[in-house]
């Protein structure tokens, strides 16, 4: 939640950033996009690094590097330097997610894995709500700089804690990571060798469609919250209290979805993904009806619940189709998620000029397109074999 929350912490303080940096609120939204793009692109590099260096060193080292980048954001005197610092912060933060997914896949028993992965993806989505609430509270009390200073302090504490509790990397009795590292030595060298697994996966129509559908998951999620900040819906004032309550109303969804993981696991991942994205589209569209703040909060809760179901369903659907290339496939999944998260604020920024209804309908359209792509993916042929990695290497 802390790592992914860095994507969202600027949303409640866009006005403060714009005023402090002498720029417009629309320009300040690029601080979200800059982080999200760097974060997503970083996965394509940091995923393979965790295979070579081990999960614990990559996770702990990435957290410590993010301490420095967070402090640089806090010290940024203007928009240009702020964007540069946010890009660096996105890159350093990207060390966490691929290694965390791989660590759970290796360490958690199969019968508990769906629950564990759902908790992880729900924490990523929960960050979108919790981080905004905390950022708004800290920003109002101490200023926006304090948000990143506080984050740096907690990153240090997290790095120390995880260094203690995570199991030892290769060379210290970690057979899974030793195998991963030994196996990686057979891969082709150079740029071509590094890109070959990605190209192989993207040439499969089912996976390509699934990755495109993933753009809508965080794209619509981050987009609607950006739109709420830029153009609050009818019945929600622009005051801090009203916006704080609206953000907090979705927190229970982040608790409920992991608790329902067992029941949800009985439904095919592709079916869950299509249904969840379709439900998200309907829920966010309904918020355009001007029936007051409670109405918006209820349907925003439904929307967040649907997104929280869609995210783990997508990664499971991708894993089913990826065969032995699950590590590379997961890196592409997280890349697609956060490319969508980077595009969402800019789409919301454009739509907010018309009003909240335009924002909500734009996000509804994005979620509906994502559902259609996921549906098309479920009908596509899957040529993947379990030996896909060996085929790529040959």
Would you summarize the structure shown here?
This protein has 394 residues and is mainly α. The chain has helices at 2-5, 14-20, 25-28, 30-53, 55-75, 79-93, 96-107, 110-142, 144-165, 175-184, 190-202, 205-230, 240-248, 251-259, 261-264, 269-286, 293-322, 326-351, 356-379, 388-393.
Describe the 3D structure.
Residues 1-382 form the Major facilitator superfamily (MFS) profile domain. InterPro entries: MFS, MFS_dom, MFS_Efflux_Transporters, MFS_trans_sf, Sugar_transporter_CS. The chain crosses the membrane at residues 28-46, 58-77, 83-103, 115-138, 144-166, 208-228, 240-261, 273-291, 297-319, 331-348, 354-374. The protein has 394 residues and is an all-alpha fold. The protein has one domain (2-393): Up-down Bundle (Growth Hormone, Chain: A), CATH 1.20.1250.20. Helix content is 80%, strand content 0%. The chain is built from 20 helices and no strands. It has helices spanning 2-5, 14-20, 25-28, 30-53, 55-75, 79-93, 96-107, 110-142, 144-165, 175-184, 190-202, 205-230, 240-248, 251-259, 261-264, 269-286, 293-322, 326-351, 356-379, 388-393. Helix 5 packs antiparallel against helix 6, helix 8 packs across helix 17 and helix 16 (269-286) runs antiparallel to helix 17. The chain is globular and about 50 Å long. The model is unreliable at 172-187 and 384-394 (pLDDT under 50).
């Amino acid at each position: 939640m802390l790592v992914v929350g860095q994507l969202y912490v600027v949303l409640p303080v866009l006005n403060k950033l714009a005023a402090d940096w002498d720029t417009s609120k629309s320009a300040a939204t690029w601080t979200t996009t800059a982080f999200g793009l760097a974060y997503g692109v970083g996965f394509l590099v940091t995923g393979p690094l965790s295979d070579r260096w081990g999960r614990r060193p990559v996770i702990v080292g990435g957290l410590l590097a993010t301490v420095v980048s967070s402090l640089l954001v806090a010290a940024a005197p203007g928009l240009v330097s702020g964007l540069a610092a946010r890009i660096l912060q996105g890159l350093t933060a990207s060390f966490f997610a691929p290694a965390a997914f791989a660590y759970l896949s290796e360490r958690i028993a199969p019968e508990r894995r769906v629950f564990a992965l759902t908790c992880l993806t729900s924490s990523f989505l929960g960050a979108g709500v919790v981080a905004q609430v905390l950022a708004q509270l800290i920003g109002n009390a101490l200023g926006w700089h304090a948000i990143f200073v506080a984050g740096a302090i907690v990153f240090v504490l997290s790095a120390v804690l995880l260094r203690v509790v995570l199991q030892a990397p290769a060379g210290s009795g970690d057979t899974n990571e030793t195998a991963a590292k030994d196996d990686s030595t057979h891969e082709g060298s150079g740029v071509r060798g590094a890109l070959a697994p990605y190209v192989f996966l993207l040439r499969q129509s089912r996976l390509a469609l699934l990755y495109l559908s993933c753009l809508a998951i965080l794209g619509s999620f981050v987009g609607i919250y950006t739109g709420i900040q830029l153009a609050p819906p009818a019945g929600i004032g622009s005051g801090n209290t009203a916006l704080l309550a609206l953000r907090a109303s979705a927190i229970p969804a982040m608790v409920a979805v992991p608790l329902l993981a067992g029941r949800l696991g009985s439904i095919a991942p592709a079916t869950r993904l299509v249904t969840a994205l379709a439900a998200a589209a309907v829920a966010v569209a309904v918020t355009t009806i001007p029936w007051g703040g409670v109405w918006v909060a209820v349907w925003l809760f439904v929307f967040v619940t649907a997104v929280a179901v869609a995210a783990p369903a997508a990664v499971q659907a991708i894993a089913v189709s990826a065969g032995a290339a699950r590590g590379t496939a997961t890196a592409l999944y997280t890349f697609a998620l956060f490319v969508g998260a980077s595009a969402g604020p800019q789409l919301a920024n454009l739509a907010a000029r018309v009003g909240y209804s335009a924002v909500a309908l734009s996000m509804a359209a994005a979620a509906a397109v994502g559902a259609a792509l996921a549906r098309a993916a479920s009908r596509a042929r899957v040529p993947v074999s379990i030996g896909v990695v060996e085929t790529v290497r040959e």
